[in-house]
Amino acid sequence: MPTCCSNASVCSEQSCQRRPVGSGRRTELSKVSRMPIIDMHTHTISKRVEPLIAGQYDPMDNPYRRDMSPESRATDAEQGKLLPRLMLDVAARREVMQRMGVDFQVIAPAPAQQHYWAAEELQVALSRVQNEDVAALVAEDPGHFAGMGTLPMRFPARAIEEAVHAVETLGLRGFQIDTRVENLELSNAAFDPLYARLAKLRVPLFVHPLGFSHGQRLGEFFMVNSVGQPIEEAIAISHFILGGVLDRHPELDLVIAHGGGFYPFYAGRMDHAWKVRPEVKRLAAEAPSSYLKRLWFDTCVFRTDLTEALVAMVGTERLMLGSDFPFDMGDDDPVGLVNRARLSEADREKITFGNASRLFKISKVGA
């Protein structure tokens, strides 16, 4: 079956490259030039994943790829030829970063390589090789890269073990997870020990969807990504808030990709439901919108007015520049997006440097 690159499971993460992110004009940096620029939302792959799952996995079993129209799958196949180089070649990444005006990237695995379907030992092995490979990529240029890993989420006790190893031995700064774990929502009490340990380790969870859990209606027009993923993010936020996770784990740092999806822009309806429906407020001590400033978000919303609306809802203390490099659904001018928004210089510096450096403990940028 044709795929968008040599790794079929990678291709199903998103529609792949039409062109390298950042291949357009260089952004005007005058308003954000005092501090280095950190992009906290970028991806890589592990070449060691495919041999581990060979003969056990059909990419069409992945709902994202299954629900995608044939046209979108064909587009993936055509667009993905550049992905492995952009993901694995440090020099190639640095070249694109320079065009984008970015000085430092936080690198996470491609969500399609998480494979939560896998049995326990295989899932643990898949997490370990990805975490080792992220750490190895970072080690090639630690002045310009930091890493996030992945976890065997279906087995929370093993996820705790892997988290400790990845942080204390490999030096990773956080972990990326999906918006759901097979049939388990992220508010499930089974994850509470993991959340407590991550809070103790002082590393964040980066919540990034892979398509939509019920995407049968979203195959056409690439809606499985453009519509489905923001819905997934809204569902995940709802579970974190209404399921009581943020009240049970106030020290847990949760980062929601793509500006939090639809949730921040429609929080009024969530608040109204909390006011009038007893089942909505059963586990949440406060109105849902009051929790938004306890979450972290990236800026991958593409429009200046939406960036400003996001700031109005969540503030600037936990908003970070993020591009979704190197996928075609990423923002190839994330610095320009922040630059064009009506923000103070101090707020721009928080979004482009200060917040990410604080969350991911980035103390030095450059050689």
TrEMBL record:
Under the heading Gene3D superfamilies, the entry gives: Metal-dependent hydrolases
What Pfam family is a match, any one?
A: Amidohydro_2
Q: Which organism is it from?
A: Bradyrhizobium erythrophlei
User: Which superkingdom?
Assistant: Bacteria
What spans are recorded as compositionally biased (Basic and acidic residues)? Answer: 63-78
The record's keywords, sorted A to Z, are: Lyase
Q: In its UniProt entry, what is this protein called?
A: Aminocarboxymuconate-semialdehyde decarboxylase
Q: Where is the Amidohydrolase-related domain?
A: 38-361
Has the keyword Lyase been applied to this entry?
Answer: yes
Biological-process GO terms, alphabetical = secondary metabolic process
One GO cellular component this record assigns the protein to is: cytoplasm
Map out region (Disordered) in residue numbers.
56-78
Q: Which GO terms describe its molecular function?
A: carboxy-lyase activity; hydrolase activity
